[in-house]
From TrEMBL:
Entry similarity comment: Belongs to the AB hydrolase superfamily.
Protein's UniProt name: Hydrolase
InterPro entries: AB_hydrolase_1, AB_hydrolase_fold
Stored SUPFAM superfamilies: alpha/beta-Hydrolases
Biological source species: Pedobacter quisquiliarum
C-alpha cells in the first residue's frame, strides 16, 4: 500500500469515514454542493453502516490544486476519483448513493469496476438533460447554452437565481439560501467547467450495462428531472426500481430527509 498516494487521495477529496457498521454506504454530492449536503440523512445509518463522504475536486474542502482540465473534462474523470477512494480505503461491496450528477458518476464507477460495488442509488438522476428524439431530457440546446452563458458572465447571480429553482419549496426560503451559499463557496471556474460536463453528458447507454441492483428516488415537480425520466431509467436499466416521493424539488435529502431515509432503508435491507 502506497501511504503517500493514500494520503494524497484522502486530502484531494476531503474524505471522511465514520459509523459503526461494516457495510459501506458511500455518498456522492451533486453539482455545487459538498459532503455537508448529507448531514440530515447519515445519522439514520451511521449506527449500522460505515459511512464514506467526500468532496469532488473543486467543491468543499477538496484540494483545488488537484484539478486537472483533461481528467475532469468528462464525468469519467470524477468516476475514477470514486474508484481511487475505494482502492485507497480498501472498500468492498460498496453501496453508492449519488445525488443528481453523482448518480451518473456512480453509474460510471460501477460499470468500470463492478466487483467493488453491491448496489447503486440514484437521487434525482438524469442520464441526459437535453431533449432528443423520443427522449424528453427537459432542455433544448439553445436553452442550455443560454443558461451556461449566464453562468459564465455572472456566476454569483446565476447561483442565487438557480438555487431557488433547483431547491423548490418556495415556502421554505432558507433551503434555497443554503444551496445558494453552497454554490457560492464552490470554486467558480471549476464549477463552470463541471456544469458544462454535467449538462452536456449523455449516459443513457451506460444505464443498460449496469450489473448491480439500483434504486431511483424521484421527487415531484423537480426542476431538473421528473417522473418520466425516472420511468425511462427503470425501463432500460437492469434491476432498477423507482420510489416516488411526495415531496418536491431537486434536493430531497435536504428538503425531505425522512422521505429519503424511508426510501433507502428497504432497498438497503433487501437481499
Amino acid at each position: 500500500m502506497n501511504t503517500a498516494l493514500d494520503s494524497s487521495i484522502v486530502l484531494r477529496n476531503n474524505v471522511k469515514v465514520f459509523g459503526h457498521g461494516t457495510q459501506v454506504l458511500m455518498f456522492g454530492h451533486g453539482f455545487g454542493c459538498d459532503l455537508n449536503t448529507w448531514r440530515l440523512v447519515t445519522p439514520a445509518f451511521e449506527q449500522d453502516y460505515k459511512i464514506v463522504l467526500f468532496d469532488y475536486v473543486g467543491a468543499g474542502n477538496s484540494d483545488l490544486n488537484a484539478y486537472d482540465n483533461e481528467r475532469y473534462s468528462t464525468l469519467e474523470g470524477y468516476a475514477k476519483d470514486v474508484l481511487e477512494i475505494c482502492e485507497t480505503l480498501n472498500l468492498k461491496d460498496v453501496i453508492f448513493i449519488g445525488h443528481s450528477v453523482s448518480s451518473m458518476i456512480g453509474l460510471l464507477a460501477v460499470n468500470m469496476s463492478p466487483e467493488k460495488f453491491g448496489k447503486l442509488v440514484f437521487i434525482g438522476p438524469s442520464p441526459r438533460y437535453l431533449n432528443d428524439v423520443n427522449y424528453p431530457g427537459g432542455l433544448e440546446r439553445d436553452e442550455l447554452e443560454e443558461l451556461l452563458e449566464i453562468m459564465d458572465s455572472n456566476y454569483l447571480g446565476w447561483s442565487s437565481t438557480m438555487a431557488g429553482h433547483i431547491m423548490g419549496n418556495h415556502d421554505r426560503p432558507e433551503l434555497a439560501d443554503g444551496l445558494a451559499s453552497s454554490f457560492c463557496s464552490t470554486n467558480p471556474e471549476i464549477a463552470k467547467k463541471f456544469a458544462r460536463v454535467t449538462f452536456l453528458s449523455d449516459n443513457r447507454a451506460d444505464l443498460q450495462n449496469l450489473k448491480v441492483p439500483s434504486l431511483t428516488i424521484q421527487c415531484q415537480e423537480d426542476f431538473l428531472t421528473n417522473e418520466v425520466i425516472a420511468a425511462y431509467i427503470e425501463g432500460i436499466t437492469p434491476g432498477n426500481q423507482v420510489t416516488l416521493l411526495n415531496s418536491t424539488g431537486h434536493c430531497p435529502h435536504l428538503s425531505d430527509p425522512t422521505g429519503v431515509i424511508n426510501a433507502l432503508k428497504p432497498f438497503l435491507n433487501k437481499a
